[in-house]
Design brief:
14 strands, globular, 387 residues, Aspartate Aminotransferase, domain 1, three-stranded antiparallel sheet, alpha/beta, seven-stranded mixed sheet, Aspartate Aminotransferase, domain 2, 9 helices
Length: 387
């Protein structure tokens, strides 16, 4: 039967993600608008984002934390173009973003010693195959597959290469072992539901040493340059951004960080996200039509929760018709106001994707799930009529 109770907040997009509970435009009243980002107050706001981010995530004191252009993509590209070259590199790819970084390294940077270690959607690449003497580039959480690395135990403590980690849908929802990570990136619009366009870049002392001892053989655009005269540009890590940031977005980032502190910091954020996955897991256990795309529970994401449709009526469809049916589920839900933007990523197998990050309430996830059952029933009935 058609459910009667709607989620209080029906926003389940995997990016930009739901704002924190209780958010409203009035929270941005203190934004430094019409002032230079290089003014005393402008730089103070930017530095506050850095300071609060470091504290919540537990970033070590000797690691640099900076704000960079172009969201997580810009942060990752800065790292790839600035740091790679001195060693061979292992590129882990089990979803579209990891595959994208592998493409950039092999086809744009054209590194001769670049090895791709990949796996199909829903599974994890062979972490044991990674060589600690080489650099490694990987996503902590596969946003488009719902598959995360289970831990950092596979990274050697005595590694000689650098670990470059795209953590954009893991930061603020999963534990990150900082001692195993040399470069970490994320964006404001994921874990804490901030606004887009800005990325965060964390560098370990080993990464800084690489930057100051290695000059890439290729030209570096201005927005990628992390050094000046062979030394790290320390200003980037004090709020002196390379280009002009949106001070409205900065204020929004500060609001989300303060909320994170109020609810109990990182342990509470992780618990909130894990509660969302637990709610979906209980539902999947009794579902006769939906399952997890991630095969191994140990690698199952609590943020980008990806679902496959296992009903034989769906499996009998062509890939194109499967994608259309999954999109129809999304459209049916949106028409009712029950859930927005939950179709799977275009590069993944046809299915559904529910954002379960810490800004999403478990009660809203639980309210969504009966609507999924109803929407699939509606779409399946339409398939039967068409047949």
């Amino acid at each position: 039967m058609k459910p009667q109770r709607l989620p209080r907040v029906s926003l389940f997009s995997s990016g930009p993600c739901a704002k924190r509970p209780g958010w409203g435009p009035a929270e941005l009243a203190d934004a430094v608008l019409g002032r230079s980002h290089r003014s005393t107050i402008g730089k103070a706001k930017l530095l506050e984002v850095i300071t609060r981010s470091r504290a919540i995530l537990g970033v070590p004191d000797d690691y640099r934390v900076g704000i960079v252009p172009a969201s997580d993509t810009g942060a990752v590209e800065m790292a790839l173009w600035s740091l790679l070259g001195p060693r061979g590199v292992d590129l882990l790819a089990w979803e579209s973003f990891g595959a994208g970084w592998a493409t950039d390294v092999k086809k744009q940077l054209k590194l001769a010693d670049a090895r791709v270690i990949d796996a199909p959607y829903g599974t994890m690449a062979d972490l044991a195959a990674v060589d600690g003497d080489r650099d490694v580039v990987f996503t902590w959480n596969g946003t488009t597959s719902g598959v995360k690395v289970p831990d950092g135990d596979w990274i050697p403590a005595g590694r000689r290469g650098l670990t470059i980690c795209d953590a954009t849908s893991a930061a603020y929802a999963m534990e990150l072992p900082w001692d195993k990570l040399d470069v970490v990136t994320w964006s404001w619009q994921k874990g804490l539901g901030g606004e887009a366009a800005h990325g965060m870049l964390v560098l370990s002392p080993r990464a800084v040493q690489r930057l100051e001892s290695h000059t890439p053989s290729w030209p570096l655009p201005k927005i990628f340059r992390l050094t000046k005269d062979g030394k790290l540009n320390e200003g980037i890590f004090k709020g002196e951004t390379i280009n002009t940031p949106s001070m409205l977005a900065v204020e929004d980032a500060l609001d989300s960080l303060r909320w994170a502190e109020r609810v109990g910091g990182l342990p509470s954020l992780i618990a909130r996200s894990e509660a969302n996955l637990a709610a979906v897991s209980r539902w999947v256990e009794t579902s006769d039509w939906a399952g997890f795309l991630a095969v191994d529970p140990a690698t199952r994401s609590s943020t980008s929760i990806c679902l496959s449709i296992v009903d034989p009526a769906f499996q009998a469809l062509s890939p194109g018709d499967q994608r259309a049916a999954a999109k129809k589920i999304e459209q049916v839900l949106e028409a009712e106001g029950a859930g927005f933007d939950i179709a799977g990523h275009r590069d993944a197998a046809p299915g559904l994707r529910i954002w379960g990050g810490p800004t999403v309430e478990a009660a809203d996830i639980e309210a969504l799930l009966p609507w999924l059952d109803w929407a699939w029933g509606e779409v399946k009935a339409g398939l039967a009529v068409a047949a």
